[in-house]
Known about the structure:
mainly alpha
Amino acid sequence: MNSNNPSVEKTGFRYGIYGGLAMMIYFLILKVIGLDKNDTVRFLAMVFIIIAATMAIYYFSKHKVKGMFYLNGLGIGFLVGLVGSVFYGIFLFIYSYFIDQSFTADLRLMDLFGSNLSPLMIFGANSLLGMIVGTFTGYITMMYFDRSRREAKDF
């Protein structure tokens, strides 16, 4: 990738993988500690999508030659959320289907999705949540990084 003119897709994909890896490591740490069944602590994995999307937008704004526009940031936030959460969702699917089936059984007892909870539903819910978090992060972060309008001269 040309560091002087990065693309939205490559930046979003790269930082999405970083966010997905961070969420997987976080989940494994929670598993070792024994907090993997706590919803609130597991939900905090989405903080890594927020961090990765913000870092990706910052990287793109610093290395883009012609400036950064609002839709570029929204696209990066969406791609980081999509790639990171799908990557993490695939990990959770493989983990709950092949490695630890009791994880799915424990989640069924919490009655989040009812008794029909499957590893595929875990994948889908995490992927959808990650895309939403990434998109909102891009939207909020671009309020700071947007350079498509001129600053008011009277301030």
